[in-house]
Amino acid sequence: MNQYTMTLQWSEEDQLFLVTIPEFTEKVIMPCTHGKTREEAIRNGEEVIEMYLEAWHSEGELIPEPRTLQAA
C-alpha cells in the first residue's frame, strides 16, 4: 500500500471525480486521473501512483517522498 496523497474533487463541468497526486507535481505536469464514481477515481489514482513509481524506479530516477502527518 502506498502512502501518497490523493486529492479527490468533483468536477461539475466534466461530471467526474478528479484525482490529483500533490507529491508528483514537481515531476509530472498534471499528475491526475478521474472516475465516474469516487471508488473508480480512487482506484484509478492508485493505478497512476503505481505506474509512475514503477517507471521512475526502472529508469533510476528519484522518487518523491510521500507527505505524511506528524503526530502532535
Can you describe what's shown?
The protein is α+β, with helices and mostly antiparallel strands and 72 residues long. The protein has one domain (7-58). It has one helix and three strands. A three-stranded antiparallel sheet has the order 1-2-3, covered by helices on one side. Strand 1 and strand 2 form a beta hairpin.
Radius of gyration: 13 Å
The major beta sheet can be summarized as: 3 strands, antiparallel
How many domain units? Answer: 1
Mean pLDDT: 92
The general outline is globular
Write the layout of secondary structure elements.
Elements: E1 7-11, E2 16-20, E3 32-35, H1 38-58
Antiparallel strand pairs: 1-2, 2-3
Can you give keywords for this protein?
72 residues, alpha+beta, three-stranded antiparallel sheet, 1 helix, 3 strands
Question: What's the quick description here?
Answer:
The chain is of the alpha+beta class and 72 residues long. It is 29% helix and 19% strand. The chain has 1 helix and 3 strands, in the order E-E-E-H.
